[in-house]
Amino acid sequence: MNRRWLLYTIAGAALIALPFVYRDPYHLHILILILIWSFAYTSWSMMGRFGLVSLGHGGFMGIGAYVTALMWNHLDVSPWIGIPVALVCAGALALVVAYPCFRFRITGHYFVLVTLALSGIVLQVITATRDWTGGSLGYTPERTKGNHLLALQFDDKTVWYLIALGVWAAGLVIWRLVDRSMARYALEAISEDEDAAAAAGVNVTFEKLRITVISALMTALAGALYCQYQMFISPDTVSGIAVSLQMVFAVVVGGIYVALGPTVGAIITIALAEGLRIGFGTKAVGWDNLVYGVLLVLFIIFLPKGILGSLLERIRLRRRGVARPQSQAAPLGRAP
Amino acid sequence: MESFLEIFDIYLLEAMINGILLGGVLALLALGLNLIFGVIDVTWICYAELVMIGMYGMYYLVQYYGLSYYLAAPLAILLVAGLGALLHYLVIAPLLSGAPINQLLATGGVLFVLQSFATVAFGIDFRNLGIRLPVLAFGEMHFSYSRLLAFGAAAAGMIVVYFFMKRTYIGTAIRAIAQDRQIMALMGVDTGRIYLITSALGGALAGLAACLLVLQYDVHPFVGLSFGPITFLICVLGGLGNFVGGFVAAFLFAEIISLGGLFSDLEWGYVLAFAFFILMMFIRPAGLLARRQ
After folding, report:
1. Can you list the domains of chain B with their CATH numbers?
2. Is A248 within 8 Å of B105 when comparing Cβ atoms?
3. What is the pTM of this model?
4. What tens digit of pLDDT does each residue of B281-290 get?
5. What is the value of ipTM here, to two decimals?
6. Of B100, B113, B271, the CB nearest to A125
């Protein structure tokens, strides 16, 4: 166990030291994006790994981004207050939508479709209130004239890198806490069989609601961070079905049951998108999503545990020295 | 004041009738999705994108190859039906024994593929057929002919599907499979073939919807997003796989959107519809027509 902690410390120190040693702004930018999106994907996987497949996380992310930006521009409220308010909004929305779903046992396809509608509707609301939000043209938080810290706007990429790194690490810690908690066993029991779990004394509605709210809050935070970093948000980049599906894709590719799976997914998706953009320029418009889509289908059919998940499993099996064949039919989300 | 009220009522009536006309097309979309769900137990997240491909098919057949609208429509329907069968054969069939969520997510991947394929192949320009249908004036109300045609064709399509399901051997087999998947295989029905036919039929309904929608809307790669979510809402509200429920829900939603659009923007109509949906989830979680346990 001690060796593992040593490994964590060294990796952490290396990650913190990185921006002071290596200062290329473009690569730092990519790293910051990877960290922010990894955090968002991690928050999706908190629910997804228990079979609670949500396509509504684009909605939570949009709320996080837009509420923060709107409060800054229209009410002059600092993001330090705006972000908590945005989180409360996202949490409230998650409660309003998820409570009837869980209370009345809306699972599986129904749940996916309800959440899908949720992200579609957040997109519609942002577009409909175009007098305030700029509609589909996007929205820019005003540049601060005063205190940078108060406005949570920094020109230095190093600062952003450290913020994103901290949030990302916090996301992993939360993942780990859930992984080690009783709630994990309760949720796994629920995903296998709700009736049996309820009969065994698990408060099904409460457990599902709790993980949903945690996941929604984290996603909203990711949206707010993205907004503060990019200083430009549009309904298509932080909200809607495309963003939700992108989360699913990255997590499935990386590995849904392992802590670093979403991060691996984020690295792969962003590297792919940037590589295509640099390699082909404007001709590449659309190609990255084409590749994503084909990969998503192939992964679900042939490698449902994702890249990192399958790799770790193979290593574990080899260590044990058992030449067991890799189980192919591992369900990604268990049958409802 | 008197005359103001009169005008207002005319607008209200017009909006309501337009709502019914919109409901026809929405009901058609919901029917296709419900058919697939009821029989194969799979939700095609990419259903609206199939419609989008069909709309592009219509655009190219009419604009590029110069076919007449009525000649192009059957070809577009065939195209999307083929796509539906292909989708089942390539993506759904290998996953049939897996967890249902995997099938759904895989069709999410197909959504990406179709959208970006359209972006790459056709570009992101808005295109339209260039067919201008006349506007019917009825009293002081105005209805676009394309909407009437859409309603009529959607109704006809649904009636054809109804008789197909009730009167033919294959239709009976499809309904039987929807009731019990395991037993029908023992009764000598080739389930794989029935699934394929159902997928093609679902695709054909998407194709028909495409032919009708292309008259009213410009086509672009992301057009599916403008009516996809509402179709899913309708199916869930009506109860997934419940044909009659989907039908009722389609008209309810269309009325809400249309009337909401009368008082404010069209987007607010959608937002209202969503609020209504959440409310109904509390009241009738298993669908409009479901009996409560």
Report:
1. 13-124+132-283 (1.10.3470)
2. yes
3. 0.83
4. 777 766 676 6
5. 0.77
6. B271
